[in-house]
Amino acid sequence: MKKVSWFGVGLILVGVAMLLDRFDVFSFGWMPVLWALVAVLGLVKAIDGFGKKKSGRVFWGTFWFLFGTYTLLCYIDVVE
């Protein structure tokens, strides 16, 4: 069984979303998507750091998760 390149799948999904936005199928802002991705990637790194017992990865993963979540909440006017 072959491994799946999740980075490639992510790039394809971003490309499809950009095409749908360009053809006015649906419209959304890219900044909330960017900060949500930062938060998700931070969470993945933090969980990976806990699994491998690497404190640096846990710290930076938690930092990017909290920063991305806070910025996303500010951007969509949940937090001032």
The largest sheet, given as strand count, sense and whether it forms a barrel, is:
none
Average per-residue pLDDT, rounded, comes to: 83
Beta-strand proportion: under 5%
Category from helices, strands and their pairing: mainly alpha
Span of the ends, CA to CA: 48 Å
Order of helices and strands: HHH
Helix content: over 70%
Low-confidence stretches: none
Shape: flat
User: How many separate helices?
Assistant: 3
What is the multimeric organization of the chains shown? single chain
Rounded Rg: 15 Å
- Number of β-strand runs: 0
Description:
The protein is mostly helical. It contains three helices and no strands. α2 (30-52) packs antiparallel against α3 (55-75). The protein is flat and about 45 Å long. The termini are far apart. 11% of the residues are buried. The model has no long low-confidence stretch (mean pLDDT 83).
